[in-house]
Amino acid sequence: MQKIPIRQLTTLHQELPSDKQFKIRRVEHVALLQEEKNIIHALHKHDFFFILALQKGTGNHEIDFIPYMVVDNSVFFLRPGQAHKLDLKPGCTGYLLEFNSEFCHPKDKSSSQRLRKAGNKNYCKLETGRFEKLNSILTAIFEEFTTREEGYLDIIKASLDIFFIEYVRQSPDPKGLAITAKSYTQDRFEEFLELLDKYIATQKQVSQYTHLMNLSPYQLNEITKSSIGKTASELINEHIILEAKRFLLATPNQIKEIADLLGYEDPSYFIRFFRKHTGHSPEAFRHSFG
User: Is the pTM for the entire model greater than 0.85?
Assistant: First the structure.
């Protein structure tokens, strides 16, 4: 049984020192290290946060099977566990950042919420002036990371927090959804999404998540419906399908093995569930889109 390839900041399985929990590189420098002219990454996951900020860019980027055109003044922000594949054409410029949760380690609730909100915005195309504001923060971070003077890690962490604030402030919702929920509702909605990422293979009932969040089913449904117009059950089902697609397209695993990874003892039930929500059997989906 094979799982989706997961890239790590290091191949070591020990706790990383702070200076190894963060990387920033210029995209043009990464391109120079590639044997091919394009920067091509096959479908995979990360165990860390991944930010790609492109001042100049062309190509394609697919995040959790949603395709995006790479354009100038665009930012891609991936959470740990998301699947993506990338094809950047020659001539792209900007920054690529990689860091794990331990590096950020928000010290207060508001900092944690900022990171969560930023991580839920996978893509944003910005106006030139707004992008330059973000780019100047990244340039300062790159300089700190390069010179490594005393206290540089503290400055990088503080600058990242500012970047999260500006990114959330300046970027519209990538799906064009009119989020009118109050701050509390939005925070709880993002908490629910985070729990889905973590527990979807073992917990598929609304009641299980309401228990974790200390909410009633009615309260959770009100939160999800006011945020994006969907029930908690619909979001759970969407998350199951998303994880199934990741395994189908990124691994050669048999359908019964994928069903087992997703917590289904009966593969036939998983097949019926997948067909109901996608219109394809798992095998047909793999052949059509793989």
Answer: no
